[in-house]
Write a structure and sequence with these properties.
The protein is α/β, with parallel strands linked by helices and about 450 residues long. Helix content is about 45%, strand content about 10%.
Length: about 450
């Protein structure tokens, strides 16, 4: 193990935002790339907003993405406790160090951090403004993403409120010191806080960690950072849509980082090998829901059919489409056809329903479209006759039979296929046509055609 120690420090407020997930991911990747330690630290001091339910949403989301932590809740570690609500005594001990050094003082019931030197020499009560401002030496931050950043703190600031609660800036620094954090990888919106944090590190005579402020994730359209109210902003949405976590994780990696070789679909082992802080982009990343969907489709298509079946079976059982005794070889044959077309497992139950049940819905738009062309009754009767003559109902024989109908009538095969697809599946889109009919079987196809004619063609 290397000496690298990074942390992800969320507040459990009920949502696992895509921006937070990306921050956790980048910290996890850097720890895995360097052979370091990834720490999960929970900032749960806001008692009104933090709940156990929210904490579980966070844990489940991180586990779903495969972001296992080396120290923190549920796994322990030598630098705990890992909940800020359990670290009250730690904060009291460390604020006493500042008070003893003259770097903190009490005012209006609160405890303030005292900056070195006089930042203001006078305050004009009449003008209500600071006068004769002394220019303070700026804090220089050699950020691994942003480059050289200079910021100056001009005023002392509160580190303990009058209520006795420690402020974010203070606990953040104390926790980073006591947990041995070497690299702070966080969102660019925290850059404005960093000069305060550096001042605190120096007051404790501790060398600040290496900082890397990663770019913001912008909403899909329009200006501004993606918020929890934007569609696609919560990891829970992708869990509910039954996206593959590997696909979501791969896409999140590319929101602000690039392997520099124009590749996008990469295994997690490749990403870990290539990931490093200097490769993180300075420019903000824009979320793209379609691209996320594309990644999921690509991962789903590349997945072994045995894995697809393992993932899909409980969904199909829950939807009442199959029982526990449904033949595995048949199921895999069906799923292999569907795998080429669906974008996520969430779509599977509706997409494949006609394979398992006769009570599929006929899509009205698709029905109207095929009934307007030619004489649907004549064409379906031609197909019934051609299929009746088939000794083997396989894809090749079915294609030949339909082509025979097309040749005899002078119409192309396209005059038969859309109509027949709607008749047997209820829609004009779906898996590969001839294999689909072969899987359904001759008896089911013939029965469905006749029923369709009775119910939809007068």
């Amino acid at each position: 193990m290397s000496d690298v120690r990074v942390r992800f420090a969320p507040s459990p407020t009920g949502f696992f935002h895509i921006g937070s997930a990306r921050t956790a991911l980048f910290n996890w990747l850097y720890a895995r790339h360097t052979g370091g330690t990834f720490i999960l630290r929970i900032e749960d001091t806001d008692k009104e907003r933090n709940t156990d339910e929210a904490l579980q949403v966070l844990f489940e989301g991180m586990k779903w993405l495969g972001l296992n932590w080396d120290e923190g809740p549920e796994v322990g570690g030598s630098a705990g406790p890992y909940f800020q609500s359990e670290r009250t005594e730690v904060y009291r001990e460390w604020v006493q160090k500042l008070l003893a050094k003259g770097r903190a003082y009490e005012k209006d019931g609160a405890i303030w951090f005292k900056l070195e030197g006089e930042r203001y020499t006078a305050y004009d009560e009449y003008l209500k403004k600071d006068m004769e401002k002394v220019k303070a030496a700026p804090v220089v931050i050699d950020d691994q993403v942003r480059g050289r950043v200079e910021r100056a703190e001009d005023r002392d600031f509160v580190i303990f409120r009058a209520s006795g609660e420690p402020v974010f800036h203070f606990v953040n620094v104390v926790d980073d010191i006591t947990m041995g954090i070497t690299h702070v990888i966080r969102g660019e919106d925290h850059l404005s806080n960093t000069s305060k944090h550096v001042e605190l590190f120096r007051a404790f005579d501790v060398e600040p960690p290496v900082f890397a402020h990663i770019p913001l994730i912008l909403k899909e359209t329009g200006p501004g950072k993606m918020s929890k109210r934007d569609q696609g902003a919560l990891i829970e949405e992708y869990q509910n849509l039954q996206y593959l976590p590997e696909a979501v994780r791969n896409y999140l990696c590319l929101l602000g980082w690039s392997p520099k070789d124009d590749r996008e679909i990469l295994s997690i082992s490749e990403i870990i090998e290539l990931f490093d802080l200097p490769a993180i982009n300075k420019t903000n990343a824009r979320f793209d829901a379609k691209k996320m969907g594309h990644f999921n489709t690509e991962y789903l298509r590349a997945m072994p059919i045995e894995t697809v079946s393992w993932l899909a079976t409980p969904k199909l059982v829950e939807a009442g489409l199959i029982g526990s005794e449904f033949p595995e070889d048949t199921l895999q044959t069906i799923l292999k056809l569907c795998q080429e077309k669906i974008r996520s497992l969430h779509e599977l139950s509706d997409f494949a329903r006609f394979f398992f049940k006769d009570d599929y819905t006929i899509i009205e738009k698709a029905l109207n479209k095929v009934l307007k062309k030619g004489d649907p009754s004549t064409r379906l009767n031609e197909v019934i006759q051609a299929f009746s003559d088939l000794a083997h109902f396989d894809a090749e024989s079915i294609e030949a039979a339909i082509q025979k109908c097309a040749d005899a009538s002078g119409n192309g095969a396209g005059a038969y296929m859309p109509l027949l697809r709607v008749a047997v599946s209820g829609t004009n889109v779906g898996p590969s046509f001839y294999p689909m009919l072969a899987i359904l079987g001759k008896e089911a196809v013939m029965t469905r055609i006749r029923r369709f004619m009775t119910e939809n063609i007068s």
